Amino acid sequence: MQSQVTTLDAASAGTVELSDxxxxxxxxxxxxxxxxxxxxxxxxxxxxHAQDRSEVAVTGKKMYKQKGTGGARHGDKSAxxxxxxxxxxxxxxxxxxxxxxxxxxxxxxxxxxxxKAKAGELxxxxxxxxxxxxxxxxxxxxxxxxxxxxxxxxGAELEPSFTMAARNIPNIDVLPVQGINVYDILRRRKLVLxxxxxxxxxxRFK
Length: 206
Description:
elongated, alpha/beta, six-stranded mixed sheet, 2 domains
């Protein structure tokens, strides 16, 4: 499939041929959901911790004698039913990560790219460069292109001036092609790929 190439000044820069195996698949919502869930669970720190009855700072002395009080039998105050006692079956530090085969992850990325292309939310940019590194000038160029909520994917190396100018603009993300992922693609309205990013993606999935 062919796509128009544009510049940051909203001028035409010809066309580029996009691989059907990457940008023309029928998107599967179930695959995208699995991938987003895998990414978000992998990001969780898993450092939650509640003290159980062996960890709370209370005395280990028996509360009162076993018999003759007319009340229930109890040991020390660290039991979960008492205020200040330990938490029963509370959370402990652990990894939330789930399994996801490498080939399924690669397929999900292709489906995310295809979903943006099918929805008309894919923009191919000639180059992601800024001559002066000024945020105001870059924001005006983005508005002219209708890019108010977008993810920019460049080649292996990001242009420093462009990255510096874009990082202060709300709802704009800039990543190198090796950092492309399903979650970031779906959380932004538009996906902007440079020609270098397109070439790198096609080489990656060849």
